[in-house]
Structure formats: C-alpha cells, structure tokens
Amino acid sequence: MDLDAKLGLDVFKVAPASHIELDAEVCKVCSSRVCLWVCPAKVYTEGEQGAINVRYEGCLECGTCLIACPEPSGLTWRYPAGAFGVHYRFG
Hints:
By secondary structure, the protein is an alpha+beta fold. The protein has one domain (3-80): Alpha-Beta Plaits (2-Layer Sandwich), CATH 3.30.70.20. It has 4 helices and 6 strands; from the N terminus they run αββααββαββ. It has helices spanning 3-7, 24-29, 35-38, 64-68, and strands at 11-13, 20-22, 44-46, 52-54, 75-77, 85-87. The strands form 3 sheets. A two-stranded antiparallel ribbon has the order 1-6. A two-stranded antiparallel sheet has the order 2-5. The chain has a two-stranded antiparallel ribbon with strand order 3-4. A hairpin with a 5-residue loop joins β3 and β4. The relative contact order is 0.30.
C-alpha cells in the first residue's frame, strides 16, 4: 500500500479554529522558511508578499514544524481541542 493510500484512510475532524498560529512579521524575515518543505502534510504554503499560509485542516499533528522552526517566537503549535484533529486508521 503506497503512502497516499495509507493517508487516505485517516479521518480529519476539523476544529473551528486553527491550532497553529504564525507570527507574520517573524515569518516574513525568516530566511530558511523550513516549514514550507519539512511538513509531511504540506500544511504550509507561500502566499503573496512572502506570507506563509496555514491550512491546518490537514495537519497530521506530528509536531515536525514546531521542532524545525528556527524562530521559536514565530510558531505556536498545540494539539487541537478534544475530539478534533486527525484520527488515524490503519488498514
């Protein structure tokens, strides 16, 4: 079973508010922009004028972005509120 098929088994119950917050000013001056390529779910995308957009709805809750971010004040990440987020199903 390939990766896309395995991820297709997961269920996402989307919270009404994001569990990921970015400081736009810190992100604009970040030279590495590691969040754009380290996230396995591609939650982070580059927007207009150097902004980083977050599509939290597909977050796998692995925390990779939090560990990799070189600017500790630039990213606030926490698990979604109870009953929300990804529900892994292995088949």
